Amino acid sequence: TMGGASGDIVVTARALIDQQAKNSLATGIVDPQAVAKAQAAGVGHTVRLSIGGKICTKENPPLSIEGTVKTICDSAVGNSGILTGYESDLGTIAIVDVNGVEILLIENAGMLGGPRFLVNLGIDPRKKKFIVLKEGMNPVLEYKDIAAKLVMLDTPGFNKQTLRPEDYKRIPRPIYPIAREMSWKPER
Question: Measured between alpha carbons, how far is 69 from 92 in angstroms, rounded to an integer?
Fold first, then answer.
């Protein structure tokens, strides 16, 4: 979300739930309405939510979930080991367990940070089978010492990692790097 993404893309959370990927975590889904509903339900209670798809609606339908509210944390601040001083006020955080898939919802967009952030919320990242992070390249540095494998995903949304010509309508052509036939080298 610090690079211009909406933070409310739910394709990876949907995949974890559909695949019944127990002991997994999808972090940082920006949805203040869902956070408020989870907070109103309270820890230990079952809640039905429609998450995501409110900011970025293209290729990102909301995801309906039903789960148990595990954690509510007010005024959480992202805790980064590599970007100290750039912490974000994430507002209230709600963690909802959907059949073994934990969904970490945040009120405000921002950088979550690394494993320390999760530990502060009562989650041991070393014990998770899968963790989906919305942090661009930061997880490569933040999680390299504890992850068995890091995989970059190119999900729908405003801040794609792979540029496709059909996503850009009002720019002159050809232009690098969208035009595959072009190459570019810096002048010396």
Answer: 13
